[in-house]
Design a protein that fits this description.
The complex is a heterodimer of chains A (293) and B (347). With 293 residues, chain A is of the alpha/beta class. In chain A, 40% of the residues lie in helices and 20% in strands. In chain A, a hairpin with a 2-residue loop joins strand 9 (228-233) and strand 10. Chain B folds into two domains: 1-39, no CATH class; 40-342, ABC transporter involved in vitamin B12 uptake, BtuC, CATH 1.10.3470. In chain B, strand 2 (161-162) and strand 3 (165-166) form a beta hairpin. Chain B is globular and about 60 Å long. The A-B interface holds A 56, 58, 77-83, 86-88, 90, 94-99, 103, 106-113, 115-117, 119-123, 127-128, 130-132, 135-136, 139, 171, 175 and B 9-11, 13-14, 187-188, 190-191, 193-199, 201-202, 204-206, 208-216, 223, 227, 269.
Chain lengths: 293, 347
């Protein structure tokens, strides 16, 4: 593993973002400890993706700061962030479909390579040396690690959804990340693919030591692998802590299942389910905001 | 039939020519190109030189349009910049012709960067229109900046000379133009084995995630414009030494369409595509001419048909390729190659 990959600390301080009059994020503060897996969860529309876009530099928040190892990076453009050690994956896979798996992964290293135009046109010499070094490193550290040896020369478009997600993770790892931002890494995956991905994320944390921040809807996976969970609702942090603490937090239950006393709500849902079973229909009208597992 | 290739180093695995069969075919091609001028008559040598120039320019446009996804209809104008630069330097400075060609390329690259500036904001059809606008402006400059360009009369160009020998015959020019074009194609092929070429493709496929990977969009789009128009400039310079005259009518918008068509018909985003496309499109009119000559005994005024038929066939070819073979001739070649990989055991 390259030494330039010391895991970074991320601090979000008093961040606010609005689109016109709509407040997407309102004074959010949280931290991601170096080398930890932190999950950002919340119902649909809670501001998770907006938060991610602020952290990776696509949106400029009106107030507040994003600090990377203490350094204010709020106004730094995405390409410059890549050089600092930000790597992210996208909710809808953002691979380059016209290229092979190997070329996609190699692209991850772009910001850390030196070959200039004249060297590239001549190829032999510095460009060839750098390319071969990169290839050897990608094969050793990434392709073997993520078990994608068999597909390295295949075009991305020909792969299954789960494998494409894995290639996207591979490309992010090729960026020599100091923090890895995963936007819904297991969305739309079946049970087996989800378990594979969860295992790879844990392996990245353990073997590479990379700091990981992820947005995810799959509560089972979030609770299994996260060290720390931050819950957003209506653009604000409503809870944070260890997975089991957050799970038991009444505010979180309320955010996911609707308002009111959680105990009473559970009782009402149970009663509705009984009534539904009795009439033969599915009475699920009590759920305000769905999307939990 | 080929079972598999076993490479022992990553350098061998990433080489342009990887199997012994490919080496053999490359050697045959090189020997054929070197021997051809001794077998061809003057007319075919003229065509061969023209093909070399067009291959160089189409390869350049392929870098910009095929690989980076920026549609340009300015390739003809960039060639004109190269041609005028060469003509002017030849008359006023008298540097060796290779230096002039290089300077023509650099000048075209500088103009290309200027024309490429809107590409950060506009894409696709809109960028194509912007490049047409730029061509019209350049055309205006060529026509009216009389002290430099010779206005509507244009400029004559003295023959290029190598080691004191003026290159006047097509036979001599062939041995200069073809190697230059071959080197340019090799450079382009190399480009796409490195980070810069990959960055171009990334911008074409998905520019937002390219940015996240640390690729500054504007810089790379302008770099693509610069490389592409450098190729056009050198090709235009070769054109000037080949026809020995440059005028405002030499490179019209039709030329630009010709190169775009060559890239589409050959195969966008494929080095082989640029070569085949330019060769094919250069030779199509000649084939048509033979066809017209063949029917002339039976049809009155067959000769007058040539020009309109040529235009119609060009248009039809572009449409047919877009509909039936969007990957171009290069894809057909690949299909044939795949067929022979397992032949005769699988059809």
């Amino acid at each position: 593993m390259p030494d330039a990959m010391k895991p970074a600390r991320l601090d979000v301080e008093g961040l606010s973002l609005s689109f016109g009059g709509l407040r997407a994020i309102n004074d959010v503060t949280f931290s991601v400890e170096p080398g930890s897996i932190t999950a950002l969860i919340g119902p649909n529309g809670a501001g998770k993706t907006s938060m991610f876009n602020c952290i990776s530099g696509f949106y400029k928040p009106q107030r507040g700061a994003v600090r990377f190892d203490g350094e204010d990076v709020t106004r730094v453009h995405p390409p410059a962030r890549a050089r600092m050690g930000f790597a992210r994956t996208f909710q809808n896979i953002a691979l380059f479909r016209g290229m092979t798996v190997l070329d996609n992964i190699k692209l991850g290293r772009h910001a850390h390579m030196r070959t200039n135009l004249l060297q590239a046109l001549a190829f032999f010499g510095p460009a060839a040396r750098e390319e071969v070094e990169l290839r050897a490193e990608v094969e050793r550290d990434i392709i073997d690690f993520l078990e994608i040896n068999h597909i390295r020369h295949m075009p991305v478009a020909a792969l299954s959804y789960g494998l494409q997600k894995r290639v996207e993770l591979a490309r992010a790892l090729a960026m020599r990340p100091r923090i890895l931002l995963l936007d819904e890494p297991v969305a739309g995956m079946n049970r087996e693919e989800t378990e594979d991905m969860a295992r790879f994320i844990l392996d990245v944390k353990e073997e590479w030591g990379t700091t990981i921040l992820m947005v995810e809807h799959d509560m089972g996976m979030v609770m299994d692998i996260s060290d720390h969970v931050v819950v957003l609702n209506f653009g604000q942090v409503i809870a944070r802590g260890l997975p089991h603490e957050v799970q038991a937090d009444p505010q979180v239950v309320a955010a996911y299942l609707g308002s009111g006393d959680p105990a009473a709500l559970m009782k009402r849902l149970a009663a509705e389910a009984d009534a539904g079973a009795a009439t033969g229909g599915a009475a699920m009208g009590g759920r305000a905001t769905g999307g939990t597992a | 039939m080929r079972i598999a290739t076993a490479n022992e180093t990553y350098l061998a695995d990433e080489a342009l020519i990887r199997t012994r069969t490919q080496w053999a075919w490359t050697a045959v091609l090189a020997a054929g190109l070197a021997a051809a001028p001794f077998a061809l008559n003057n007319y075919w040598l003229y065509l061969a030189c023209l093909v070399a120039i067009n291959v160089a320019s189409a390869t350049g446009l392929n870098i910009l349009t095929g690989y980076t996804g920026l549609v340009s209809l300015g390739q003809g104008a960039f060639m004109a910049v190269g041609a005028y630069t060469v003509a002017w330097l030849d008359r006023n400075v008298g540097a060796p012709f290779l230096v002039n060609l290089f300077a023509g390329g650099l000048m075209a690259a500088a103009v290309g960067i200027l024309v490429g500036l809107p590409s950060l904001r506009v894409k696709g059809l809109y960028l194509a229109i912007a490049t047409i606008g730029a061509s019209i402006i350049l055309q205006f400059v060529f026509l009216n900046w009389t002290s430099v360009t010779g206005g509507s009369r244009g400029m004559n160009v003295a023959p290029a000379s190598l080691f004191g020998t003026p290159l006047t015959t097509y036979f001599q020019l062939y041995f200069v133009l073809v190697p230059i074009a071959a080197l340019m194609v090799l450079g382009a092929a190399n480009l796409f084995r490195t980070r810069i070429g990959r960055a171009f493709i990334a911008i074409r496929d998905r520019d937002i995630s390219a940015e996240v990977l640390g690729i500054p969009l504007l810089r790379y789009k302008l770099l693509s414009f610069a490389v592409s128009s450098f190729y056009a400039g050198v090709a235009g310079g070769m054109w000037a030494y080949f026809f020995r005259a440059v005028g405002p009518e030499s490179f019209t918008i039709v030329e630009s369409i010709f190169y775009l068509a060559a890239v589409i018909v050959g195969g966008m985003g494929s080095i082989l595509g640029g070569i085949i496309g330019a060769t094919f499109m250069t030779l199509v009119p000649e084939v048509l001419r033979f066809g017209v000559e063949a029917i002339s005994p039976y049809v009155d005024n067959a000769g007058t048909l040539l020009s309109p038929v040529r235009t119609v066939v060009f248009g039809a070819l572009i449409i047919l390729f877009l509909v039936f073979e969007p990957q171009g001739l290069a894809e057909i070649v690949q299909r044939v190659r795949r067929f022979f990989h397992l032949w005769p055991f699988r059809k």
